Amino acid sequence: MPTKLIINGKPRAVSSSPDTPLLWVLRDELGMTDTKFGCGRGFCGSCTVLANGEAIRSCSTALENVVGKKITTIEGLSADGTHPLQKAWLAENVPQCGYCQAGQIMNAAGLLMKTRKPTDEQIDDAMGGNLCRCGTYMRIRRAIHRAAEESQILSEAKDPLRDRGSFAAMAAQDQAEEV
C-alpha cells in the first residue's frame, strides 16, 4: 500500500518501506535531488528539509515519521530563486562549493518561520548543526539578517492595516513581536 505525503504543497504517493529515510524517498523515488546526502547520521545538515515548518534531517528521519506532515524541500521554497533567503544568499556571496547550501537555506527558513528578526545568537543557535566546509558562517549569518529584513519589508507592504497607518495595528504587531 502506498504511503501518502504532501511535498511542496502537492500530494504524493510513494512505495518505499516505512523505515526508509526520507532523504532516499525524496532523491531515489521522487527524483528530488536538490536535497543532499552528507553524513547519513543527521550531523552535518546537508539533508535538511522542513516538516510542518520545523527543520529536520531527512537522512535520519524515517518515512513513517513524516506521514501527515507537510514537507518542504529546497525545490519547494522557490522554483525560480526568488525567495528572500535565496536572494540574500547570492547577495552575500554565501555559496562556494555549494554542497551544504540547500540544507543551510532550509534550516534558515525554519528559523525565520519562527523568529522574524533573529539576533546573531539566535542564528548561531539555530544554524549550529549545519556544517559548511568552506567556512562561510559569517556570510550565512549576514544573509539570514538580510532575508529577515526583506521578509519584514514584504510583509509590511502586504499588510493592509499597516498601509492605512493604523497605530493600533502597528502597536499590536510590535507587542506580538516582543512575545
Spell out the key features of this protein.
179 residues, five-stranded mixed β-sheet, alpha+beta, 5 strands, single chain, 8 helices
Briefly say what this structure is.
This protein is of the alpha+beta class. Helix content is 45%, strand content 12%.
Give a verbal description of the structure.
The structure is a single chain. The chain has 179 residues and is of the alpha+beta class. Helix content is 45%, strand content 12%. It has 8 helices and 5 strands. It has helices spanning 22-29, 74-77, 84-91, 101-114, 120-127, 137-158, 160-163, 167-178, and strands at 3-7, 10-14, 48-51, 54-57, 70-72. The chain has a 5-stranded mixed beta sheet, with helices on both faces. A hairpin with a 2-residue loop joins strand 3 and strand 4 (54-57). Helix 3 (84-91) crosses helix 6 (137-158).
